[in-house]
Amino acid sequence: MTDLLRREPHIISAGLGLLADAATAQAARVSRVDWAPPLPGVEAALASVVADPRRGAANRLAVERMLAARALLVDVLPASQALGLTAGEFLHAGPPVTWDLASGPLRGAIMGAAALEGLVTDPEAAGALAERGSITLEPCHSRSAVGPMAGVVSPSMWVFAVEDPATGHRTYCSLNEGLGTVLRYGAYSPEVIGRLRWMSAVLGPLLQAAVRSHGPVDVTAILAQMVQMGDEAHNRNRTGTLMLLRDLLPSMVTSPFRSSQVADAAAFIGGNDHFFLNLAMPACKLAMDAARDIPGATVVVAMARNGTDFGIQVSGTGTQWFTGPALTPQGLFLGGYGQQDASPDIGDSAITETAGLGGFAMAAAPAIARLVGGSAASALATTQRMYEITLAEHPLFVIPALDFRGVPAGIDVTLVARTGILPQINTGIAGRLAGTGQVGAGLVTPPAEAFSAALSALANSVPARR
Amino acid sequence: MTDLLRREPHIISAGLGLLADAATAQAARVSRVDWAPPLPGVEAALASVVADPRRGAANRLAVERMLAARALLVDVLPASQALGLTAGEFLHAGPPVTWDLASGPLRGAIMGAAALEGLVTDPEAAGALAERGSITLEPCHSRSAVGPMAGVVSPSMWVFAVEDPATGHRTYCSLNEGLGTVLRYGAYSPEVIGRLRWMSAVLGPLLQAAVRSHGPVDVTAILAQMVQMGDEAHNRNRTGTLMLLRDLLPSMVTSPFRSSQVADAAAFIGGNDHFFLNLAMPACKLAMDAARDIPGATVVVAMARNGTDFGIQVSGTGTQWFTGPALTPQGLFLGGYGQQDASPDIGDSAITETAGLGGFAMAAAPAIARLVGGSAASALATTQRMYEITLAEHPLFVIPALDFRGVPAGIDVTLVARTGILPQINTGIAGRLAGTGQVGAGLVTPPAEAFSAALSALANSVPARR
Lengths: 466, 466
Fold this sequence. Notes:
The structure is a homodimer.
Chain A: H1 2-6, E1 10-14, H2 18-25, E2 29-33, H3 43-50, H4 55-68, E3 72-78, H5 79-83, E4 89-92, H6 104-116, H7 126-131, E5 136-139, E6 145-146, E7 158-163, E8 170-174, H8 190-214, E9 217-218, H9 219-226, H10 238-253, H11 259-270, H12 277-290, E10 300-306, E11 309-314, E12 322-325, E13 330-333, E14 346-347, H13 351-354, H14 369-372, H15 376-386, E15 390-399, E16 405-411, H16 413-419, E17 425-430, E18 438-444, H17 448-461
Helix pairs in contact in A: 3-17, 4-12, 6-8, 8-10, 9-10, 10-11, 16-17
């Protein structure tokens, strides 16, 4: 002890840099330890979940199943047929929500879908319909589906069916409408409804014919290539879209459809860099569904938002949603829009981050910085930070800029709780008011409450010691 | 001086690290300066070219014209029509060469082309024809064209016509045949000839119809996007190919061609990741042609190889070739092939490096490392090294991994001579023997002699002082 005071002091500083900065300014020797406090109030739950003897093996199994999942596009079908939706039933993104609590973009999308289905002539009349209970709302996730942004799926829309050949499990997602004034961003103008009618009348049936004649399209293989070609499969799906078009095109051309219809469809898909998103999402859901329902596993299997709440589901706690108020993304805005026009976070597309893509794979897509803000360096730093809260590196989705290291995949609730690092999501931003459409793109995280709540439920599920 | 000896020594070491390593090992303070000796024997010529009063302004003009060039795909035509080739006339890659000195892959390609043109029935008979002078050989570059690998163009082959809208200048390149057993790698089997016949009978005319109906395709815009999507436009043209297909497809579908022909063409293009190379090359040639013929300019405007010699052309010295023996690429080999099977460097495709793409843009395409050898880190280092010998950063071709810095473009003969740093080319590797085809892909540089010879000619062109 006497000796300690005589020696030159070597200060080790954990967490915030204030002390370290002050000591450094006085020429002291300082080593900084990267440490952050856990989420507030989780200590007891964290201790009991971490001590759960099932956890190690359960998470290993969850990760193994997630990484083994493969996604094939096997069919394109009307939602009525694929998902059993009947008149007046609408799916939406995120955890459950009622009309009175629904966000602007979700309301706008339901209004447009009600007009598409012929329940109302004027979309503005849909509100009254909803208020008297003639419209049923249900999360996409509850029917093995996912939907970007508002995520509204109604019976006459067509959906991709994606299947894991090893298990036969299928997931579904609507067809992507393009950017700007589109239903999933809450717009419901006649142009929006007209496009959706064409998608149901021509695009869906043509893609069905092409997929059935071509045979299954390997969505996982396309995802693996995309990540080496600047896409992160959430807000950049450029090469994915091009590869899908390449694969289906010969079968589209030789289908019985008129060449003008084939040309229109090819131009529509080719003109929409986001078209593949609606295949990336169900592929990610397939992988995360494979990791579901393992007692004791603390892996997040879904993150989804409805514009009001952000919800997560965890492998060890079944289909229970753990929610908190959705945050509002910060980002870059289109035209005259600004932060004040932004809806809180919305969409099932955070399933990509749940599976290690999107914000988690931003190092593979530095050009995303020009869309959502930040720099190539910050994109790299984001991916590197996500390794802190994930259990695995995906062997198929490798990042050239990190010398082919796999993306960080498999978010562990205990790692989030212990480090306070929240999953990084990149996202489109919908206008706050129904009818607006897209206003920008940016970055957002889940609310910490969702993870605290999940941790409590996991703690309650730990078997009592005998 | 006395004081100097009393103080702690601080050693500054330039160039090789031997002295610095030894001094460091003795705990001396060492600063290393990154310095390399100039090319051997160039000191006098270098001094006189560097002192040329025209040089600064001439190079600025050359760079300005190079960077301002834009390339549009405006037509697809038979080579007889576009290049005025007549029976028995063959273009080839690289500087001029005669049959007796021609490399294996160049001979193989001429043999196949002679069969394609009906000059011989058996390709093996073409040698005798060439030996008695019935075949005329001329570099592609002498007819505003470029050709990958052997680069053989014969009258009945179809070529892309690429035009700079500001100047009306056009350049040309054959259609890409795919990989493996193909004419440009020196193969001439019946399969090779059959494919070429289909390309002349169906693919060329169909693409002509599509381009004429679609209107000009902006090749420069595709190049700019590719570089942000993992392509370096020499040995990775994946996204470029997909974008071209996307752009032309609707016009292909609505063309008068049969749907089976359209489907075949779409599958052929979509199945060949290198298809866009043959548009990247003439686009790069357009840019470099714009920088030609400026007295006093020391910018390299062409690098090309014929499997025997490597030649360069320089802005200030017209169409004169400066050559040295082509080196043999080092790289990764297909199947059972190895380094001993490799032909010396061949092809006009080094026009991509001349314009700042290919090896110069490898930082944009780290996945190339898996094709040509090396790592993501070495790809980054290669691009960074090329800034040492170039005059500009291309504002349209920006590298996400370098935070959107432009690719190094505009090789300056004096910078190469002074630093001894040779341009880095990445390349396919042809089999040494005629008829083999591709054996691998790898890395190569020009022979230093080509730059020494160019520097001497530039020195001789410096106006005498009055």
